[in-house]
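Continuing from yesterday's entry. The apo prediction looked reasonable, so today I'm repeating it with zinc ion included to see how the binding region is handled. Same sequence as before; SMILES copied from the compound registry.
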Amino acid sequence: MSPHTGQSNADTAWPSAGLEKLFKCQICSSSSRRLRYADLTDRLFCCAPGRWQMYTCNSCQTAYLDPRPSLASIGLAYDAYFTHNDGLTLPRSGGLLGWIKAALDGYRKHRWQMPLNRANVTGGRLIGLLRPIRETVIAHMRHLPARLPRSGACLLDVGCGNGLYMDLARQAGWQVHGVDFDVHAVASAQARGLDVRLGGLEQVQDLLGSFDRLTCSHVLEHVHSPREWLLQMHAMLRPGGSLWLQTPNINALGHRRFGVHWLGLDPPRHLSLLTPKTLFKLLDECGFTVKELPLPALMALSVYQDSDAMAKGAPQIGARLRWRSFFRPAWLSDAWLQSRTLTQAEFITVEATKI
Ligand SMILES: [Zn+2]
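Holo prediction written out below.
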């Protein structure tokens, strides 16, 4: 059901003038392919009209929609979309939750020297000893180096939303900038004093070649030309600068488990979904060296929770993690496997360094 109208839009056709036919893979140009899904609909926000076919490239295994919304019409898919929820941020509160939040801040203060007034330093030390929690905090900070690479180091968040992550990086001492296509999110970030520009990388051409770090969280699957975006991001970096990138993994265990209900499909907003091998090759061709990064079990379980809700016809994106729902042996086993076998993780997470 649509959050706005209570109705699904799946039986309304996408305007035919707004459809773009590909006939071939946009990553490797091969036209050899097989149909993977014939009738995908927007099961997440239920706002996008249309039914969609997804193909798998026989050459590079990329999954892609064909036809897909054109660049001019894609806005229709974002009618009820809210991109920038931060599922790992705990509310301000007292009691146990308040203590956990203060302890997490304590760890952040210790590792990234963030000026967090309410931090619990002792709790932070304890978190430093608990590997699964420590790795979740580090992943949530997008594996930001513990020390600035140089004084005045600059970070660009590509697809920054309302600037939540920029705020964290700023507290860690980085000069931060951001770009995003969402007019409401950009206004919200600007109101908090952040340098966020409406649009894509063309908006920061004055800063070309000046960034020490780029972050690009769950953007690549939305763009019409992934290779073009990677080349543009490469140009934004200084030599030796790094791109942190995360995107859904079409080979994820969760995809096998939930099939058409898997959160990562998200048609028609997700236009292409890559395998780890293909993404690494693409990054290499764009001038990066690639380091894979682990995905904490908690993040995999969060995808499972959302996919399960969709399978039950009750998408709850933005809902808080429901801890009790995680205690299913099959889910816990998958999450454990994913944290050790990155080829099957829900997300591909990499740090790609500009050669
Ligand atoms: Zn291909």
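Comparison notes:
- The chain has a mean pLDDT of 91.
- The CA atoms of residues 155 and 213 lie 5 Å apart.
Will overlay with the apo model tomorrow.
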